[in-house]
Amino acid sequence: MHEHPRELGEIAQRWFEVMRDSGGDVRELLHDGHPTACVGDAAFAYVDAFKAHVNVGFFRGAEIADPDGLLEGSGRFMRHVKLRPGRDVDAGALTKLIETAYADMRERLEADTRQRSDDADFRAAIELAQRFPGVEVTTSYGTPAIKVKGKFLARLRTEAEGWLALKCDFLDREILLKAAPDVFHLTDHYRDYPMILIDLARIDDDAFLDIFERAWRLTAPKRLIRDHDARNPG
Questions:
Q1: What are residue 92's phi and psi, to 5 degrees?
Q2: 1 pLDDT exceeds 80?
């Protein structure tokens, strides 16, 4: 920034400081030769000084709210605001845009972390579920699911809280919801269905196996259940 004309350097410096002040987790680095602000390793904004103007750029600018219409560009993701000496810019609106870009990137990273955690919990649940014969890992409504001989047993609600929706007798559900409300949940969508929502991050293996076996017995073919019981007496 200091290699450019003084006025342009001051503009770039000012707005990069706004980026750095967006949050305590903001890191700065040089990307393609220009100062870039990141959350962790994920870049959200940059400044780039040219001969006659400065670009305040946003790596996901096409996907963030721009109520004041400051953004320019037509790429798939990136957008920028072009600043020139002597031309006024709505400082409040540009500051808000930077804050929005920072918040958006934080939300993306947090969602990615939750997804990885949900995937790991679901893989662990599958390992336990596969102790029962006929269990298949498949999809339902585009999300990971568990079936037994083609019949639905459970699915991971990746579009919501990351909880597992599992078949459950209505009476058992009422007992579980009262006994451990931090582990078991219910939404209006499932209220009239024999289903319960399980926070896989909070349930221990023994409890999951017990509840899953009940769901399996509600769904599995009777012959499969008899064969399983014969091989596992008591």
A1: -65, -40
A2: no
Domains, the chain, in order of start with CATH, read: 6-110 (3.90.1150.200), 130-231 (3.90.1150.30)
Which residue from 129, 126, 134 is spatially nearest to 224, judged by alpha carbons? 134
| Cα(77)–Cα(55) distance, integer angstroms | 15
Rg (C-alpha) for the chain, rounded Å, is: 26
User: Does this model's pTM top 0.85?
Assistant: no
For 191, the token pair is 């209220």
SS3 letters across 10-48: HHHHHHHHHHHCCCCCEEEEEECCEEEEEECCEEEEEEE
Q: At what angle do helices 170-179 and 205-219 cross, to 10 degrees?
A: 170
User: Which parts of 101-175 are beta strand (E)?
Assistant: 135-140, 143-148, 151-156, 164-167
pLDDT digit string, tens, across residues 14-69: 999 999 999 999 999 988 888 999 998 899 999 999 989 999 999 999 999 999 99
Task: Please report, for residues 87, 95, 183, the alpha-carbon distance to residue 146 in angstroms, rounded to integers and kept in the order given.
Answer: 60, 47, 20
- Own/partner pairs, 144-151, CB within 8 angstroms, 24+ separation: 148/216, 148/219, 148/220, 148/224, 149/220, 149/221, 149/224, 151/219, 151/220
User: Is residue 152 helix, strand or coil?
Assistant: strand
Give 140's strand partners. Answer: 143
